[in-house]
Amino acid sequence: MSLEKVYDVPLEVAAGAHITEALYREMYERSIKDSDKFWSEQAERFVDWFKPWDKVQDCDFGTARIRWFEGGKLNVSYNCLDRHLAEKGDQVAIIWEGDDPDLDRTLTFRELHEQVCRFANVLKKHGVEKSDRVCIYLPMIPEAAVAMLACARIGAVHSIVFAGFSADALRDRILDADCRYVICADEGNRGGRTVPLKTNVDTALQSCPNVKTVIVVRNTGGTIDWDARSVWYHEELAEASPDCPPESMDAEDPLFILYTSGSTGKPKGVLHSTGGYLVYAAMTFQYVFDYRPGEIYWCTADVGWITGHSYTVYGPLCNGATTLMFEGIPTYPAPDRFWRVVEKHRVNIFYTAPTAIRALMAQGDNWLETTDRGSLRVLGSVGEPINPEAWEWYYHHVGRERCPIVDTWWQTETGGILITPLIGATRLKPGSATRPFFGIVPAIVDSQGNVLEGDCEGVLTITRSWPGQARSVFGSHQRFFETYFSAYPGKYFTGDGARRDADGYYWITGRVDDVLNVSGHRMGTAEIESALVLHDSVAEAAVVGYPHNIKGQGIYAYVTLVAGISPSAELEQELIQLVRKEIGPIATPDLIQWAPTLPKTRSGKIMRRILRKIAANEIRDLGDISTLADPGVVEEIIQNRANRS
Ligand code: 6R9
C-alpha cells in the first residue's frame, strides 16, 4: 500500500480549465487512435499556415526519420507576432525585469514586431541567408527574443549558447555549427556582478576565422574591446527598415540548433524544425499552463536552455501571451526576489526549477511573508525530479494551496512537455510528473528491452513520434540514430529511469546514463573528465554525481595524478579553474578526491557504479566487486573519502 499523498486540483482552478478529466481521456484516446486527424486539428488550431501540409506524419524510429506536416508552409515569427497585431498590437508581449530591481521595461507586440523586422533586415544586410547558422550569446534581455525571432523570420537557424558558458565552450559550439555570425552583449548582469560576454566572444573568435560579423547589444555600457568584425546592435537597428516580409518556410526546415550533453563525447547540436516544433510548443503551453488571454506568464528559464526556447519565447508568444524575462537570480538582492517580481508584475503563471525552489526553501518562510502572491494561479516545475519536500513547500507556502503544480517532464530532444499534469484533469501526487500528454505513448522497459506492464520500474522510452521531437543531431544523423534509437529498436530512448504506479502515474527516477543534472543543468561526466585531464599533472579522472541538498546532484571528481606529483590545495584550485575555463562555472566540481588509482574491470573499464556509491557515502552496499582487476583499490578510495568528510 502506498502512503503517498494525493491532491485534488483546487476547485476554483479546475472550474473553467481548458482540459477536464473527461476531455483528457477523450482527447488522449483520439490522439492515439486517430492520430493524423487529431494532429491536423491541433496544427490548424494553434498555428497559421501559408499553405497546408500534404502529409501529417512520416516517422520511422527504425531509421530515425521524423517528419511532420511536410509540404506545409509557415513562418514562426509571423505566428508569434504579425498575426497578433490586429487585436493585440498594444498588449505587452515581453516584460523585462533587470538584475537591478529598479530596472524594467516592456515591449508591446507592435514594438516587438517592429524590432524583429528591423533586426531581420540588419541580419540580411550583413549577408545572413536562409539556413545560415547564427550564434546567439546573450543574457536574458528582450534582444535575445528579438534575435531568435529575427532569425526565424528570414529562415536563419539560431544556435543559442547559454551566457554562462565559457569562451572555450562557446568556440566549440560556433565551430561545430559553423556559425558565421554571432550576436552578443557587451556584458551580462548576474546578482550584482557583470559577466564579460563580449570579451568571451573575442577569446572564442581567435579560433573561429569563419565568423564575419559580431553584433553587440549595449546592455551594461561597460568597456569592451572593438574590432573590424564588431557592429553595434542599436546603431544598425536605427538605420534598418521596419518592413521585412516573413520568409515562407517548409514545415521541416530547421528552426534552431541547441547543444546538449550526452553520455559520451562532446555536446550534440540537437536540431529542431519549424512546423511540428511550433505546433507542439504552442499547444503544450496553452494546455499545460491552462493559459487564458490576458494572463502574465513567467518562466524563469534562461533562453540558453530548451525551456527558455519553448516556454519563455515560442510557446507563449505564439499564443499571444505576455511573457516575462528576468535577467537576475532568485537570491539577489535578497531571497525574496522571485516573489517581489511576482507581486510587482502580477504574475499569474510561474514556472521554475526544483533547484531554485530548494534554495529559496532553505532561506526560510520569512522571505515569503512580506510579499503578495495572490495573483498566482498555476505553478510549474521543470528540469529535474522535484523531491516531495520541495513540492509541498511550493504548494503550501508559495501557492498557499490555491495553485496546482504542474511537474513537467521533458528534454531538449523532445522540444516540449511530454509527461505532465493537466489543470482540471489531473490529481497531483508530489514528486510525480503524472501522466502522458496527448499523443505520447511511454513504455517502461527492462535492460533487455522487454516492455513492462502495470506497476513497474525501468528505463523510460517513447514508442511513437510527436510533432515537437528533434529531427537530427547537427552534422551527424548517424549519431542521432545511435544515441536515441539504437538501444531499444523501434523506441525513443530518453536516458531517464522511471517508475509507473498502479494509477498509471510516472515517477522519473533520474538519468540512467552518464549524464549529470546539476541545478537542472545537463552535463556529461565525459565532458568534465576531458577538461580535468587537460592538466599536465592529471593522469586520469572519473566524475560522478552525488546527492546534493540544493543542486539535486553535485559534481564529484576522482583524480589520479601523474606519478611523482603530490596533491595540494593549489592543484585542486587549478583543476577547478580549468573546468570553469573549459566549460563554465556551472560545471565547477563540488568535491575533488585524489585517488591513487581508479577501480577498473579487467578489461579496463572504470567502475563508476562503485565510485557513485562511495561519493554518496553508501559504502556498506557496494554490490559485486569481484570483477575488479584489483579490489584493494576500493578500500583505499573509501579510506580517502572517510578522511575528507
Ligand atoms: C526540459 C529540460 C532533460 C533531463 C531529463 C530528466 C530531467 C527534466 C524533469 C526531469 C524529472 C521532471 N528532467 N524535467 N526529471 N522530472 N519534471 O530540462 O531539458 O535540459 O534537456 O534536461 O532533465 O533527467 O532527461 P534538458
Automatic annotation (TrEMBL):
Keyword Ligase attached: yes
List of residues binding CoA: 190-193, 307, 519, 580
Residues recorded as bearing N6-acetyllysine in the entry: 605
Residues that hold Mg(2+) according to the record: 533, 535, 538
A GO cellular component annotation in the UniProt record: cytosol
Main enzyme class: ligase
Sequence ranges assigned to domain AMP-dependent synthetase/ligase in this UniProt record: 82-463
Keywords: Acetylation, ATP-binding, Ligase, Magnesium, Metal-binding, Nucleotide-binding
Biological process per Gene Ontology, one example term: acetyl-CoA biosynthetic process from acetate
Residue sites binding ATP per the record: 383-385, 407-412, 496, 511, 522
Domain named Acetyl-coenzyme A synthetase N-terminal: residues: 24-80
Presence of keyword Ligase: yes
MF term (GO), any: metal ion binding
Modifications the protein undergoes after translation, according to the UniProt entry: Acetylated. Deacetylation by the SIR2-homolog deacetylase activates the enzyme.
Catalyzed reaction equations: acetate + ATP + CoA = acetyl-CoA + AMP + diphosphate
Entry-linked Pfam families: ACAS_N, AMP-binding, AMP-binding_C
InterPro entries assigned to the protein according to its UniProt record, in alphabetical order: Ac_CoA_lig, ACAS_N, AMP-bd_C, AMP-bd_C_sf, AMP-binding_CS, AMP-dep_synth/lig_dom, ANL_N_sf
CDD domains documented for this protein: ACS (cd05966)
SUPFAM superfamilies: Acetyl-CoA synthetase-like (SSF56801)
Ranges for domain AMP-binding enzyme C-terminal: 527-605
Free-text function comment from the UniProt entry: Catalyzes the conversion of acetate into acetyl-CoA (AcCoA), an essential intermediate at the junction of anabolic and catabolic pathways. AcsA undergoes a two-step reaction. In the first half reaction, AcsA combines acetate with ATP to form acetyl-adenylate (AcAMP) intermediate. In the second half reaction, it can then transfer the acetyl group from AcAMP to the sulfhydryl group of CoA, forming the product AcCoA.
Family: Belongs to the ATP-dependent AMP-binding enzyme family.
Name of the featured protein: Acetyl-coenzyme A synthetase
Organism listed in the record: Methylocaldum marinum
Gene name, Swiss-Prot/TrEMBL: acsA
